[in-house]
Amino acid sequence: MEGAAMSVDQVPMDRVEQLLRRLALNDERVVGSVLSRSGDHGHALDRKAEALIQVGALLSVGACTASLRWTVERAQATGASDEEIFGVLVAIGPAVGLARVVAEAPRLALAMGYEIDEEP
Predict the structure, then answer these.
(1) CB atoms within 10 A of CB 77
(2) Which long-range contacts (CB under 8 A, 24 or more apart) does 74-83 make?
(3) What is the pTM of this model?
(4) 60 neighbors 95 (Cβ within 8 angstroms)
(5) Residue 38: which residues within 8 A CB-CB, separation 6 or more?
(6) Which of 49-53, 84-88, 112-116 shows the lowest per-residue confidence on average (mean pLDDT)?
(7) Which one is predicted more confidently, 108 or 38?
(8) Given CA atoms 31, 36, 38, 43 in this order, what sign does their dihedral have?
(9) Rounded to 5 degrees, what angle do the CA atoms 41, 47, 70 make?
(10) Could you give the percent of the chain with pLDDT greater than 90?
(11) pLDDT, tens only, 41-69
């Protein structure tokens, strides 16, 4: 409708759509600002949620234990509990499969400062 006011919900969607399109086109400026977190992209996640998502991302790609440890420590510094960090491993399970979850569990335990044995 002409003259109708745009709803508040429509403005961020247009911006998000534009950013996604530019990322999909490999726009160097947008890609660089997203990877360096230097752009004003209106982060909708708080620091804790972001840190937990990063733990999940590292687990899902099988990142090295040192990187995982650094990210776990960052998550803990934002207030994430051990239960929440373990919950990330459980949450990614359906997406990455049982084999990845089983393979990553001991590395996550080490990154969290737990010593676990192979045998229960």
Answers:
(1) 11
(2) 75/48, 75/51, 77/51, 78/46, 78/47, 78/48, 78/51, 79/48, 80/48, 80/51, 80/52, 82/112
(3) 0.74
(4) yes
(5) 32
(6) 112-116
(7) 108
(8) positive
(9) 115
(10) 57
(11) 556 789 999 999 999 999 999 999 999 99
- Return d(Cα 108, Cα 55) in angstroms, integer: 9
Report the residue count for the chain.
Answer: 120
3-state DSSP assignment of residue 18: helix
Q: How many C-alpha atoms does 83 have within 13 Å on its Cβ side?
A: 0
DSSP 6: P
Taking the C-alpha atoms of residue 65 and residue 103, their distance in angstroms, rounded to an integer, is: 12
Distance, CA of 1 to CA of 33 (rounded, Å): 36
